[in-house]
DNA sequence: AGATTGACGCGAA
DNA sequence: CTTCGCGCCAATC
């Protein structure tokens, strides 16, 4: 399970207050198209308890509906508690919360 | 080995 | 803006 393990390692690196899209993770695994495989991996996550899978959302910033943690509302609450910003659309503010592998260059201006 | 599915992503209508 | 369809990858039957 190289791919699967790879996904876990990446998701684990997601800091609080930030979110990553399946496509983003898929890209890091080496398979930029394996967005579906990423979700599949998380679904099978053997250590999902320690994986911030709730920080993994759609490209649109939308959350997974009905499959996770008990509901997207719960996931949203978790993300907000982490510091993730949400828009009036009920979606994650990917503009500010899109996770990047690169550390903040200005360290917060 | 072939067919099917699934926490996706994007283009087109 | 919403809905439909196709492609992608990996895992499972």
UniProtKB/TrEMBL annotation:
UniProt xrefs under Gene3D superfamilies: Winged helix-like DNA-binding domain superfamily/Winged helix DNA-binding domain
Domain Methylated-DNA-[protein]-cysteine S-methyltransferase DNA binding: start-end pairs: 3-84
Native species: Sporomusa acidovorans (strain ATCC 49682 / DSM 3132 / Mol)
The name this protein goes by in its record: DNA base-flipping protein
CDD domains xref list: ATase (cd06445)
Record bears the keyword Nucleotide-binding: no
InterPro entries referenced in this protein's UniProt entry, alphabetically: ATL_DNA_repair (IPR052520), MethylDNA_cys_MeTrfase_AS (IPR001497), MethylDNA_cys_MeTrfase_DNA-bd (IPR014048), MethylDNA_cys_MeTrfase_DNAb (IPR036217), WH-like_DNA-bd_sf (IPR036388)
Superkingdom to which the source organism belongs: Bacteria
Catalytic activity line of the entry: a 4-O-methyl-thymidine in DNA + L-cysteinyl-[protein] = a thymidine in DNA + S-methyl-L-cysteinyl-[protein]; a 6-O-methyl-2'-deoxyguanosine in DNA + L-cysteinyl-[protein] = S-methyl-L-cysteinyl-[protein] + a 2'-deoxyguanosine in DNA
Pfam families from the UniProt entry: DNA_binding_1
Alphabetized UniProt keyword annotations: DNA damage, DNA repair, Methyltransferase, Transferase
């Amino acid at each position: 399970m190289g791919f699967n393990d790879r996904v876990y390692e990446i998701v684990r690196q997601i800091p609080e207050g930030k979110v990553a899209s399946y496509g983003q993770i898929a890209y890091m695994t080496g398979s930029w198209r394996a967005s579906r495989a990423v979700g599949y991996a998380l679904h099978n996550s053997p250590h999902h308890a320690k994986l911030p899978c709730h920080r993994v959302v759609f490209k649109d910033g939308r959350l997974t509906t009905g499959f996770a943690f008990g509901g997207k509302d719960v996931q949203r609450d978790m993300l907000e508690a982490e510091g993730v910003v949400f828009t009036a659309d009920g979606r994650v503010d990917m503009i500010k919360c899109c996770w990047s592998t690169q550390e903040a260059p200005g360290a917060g201006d």
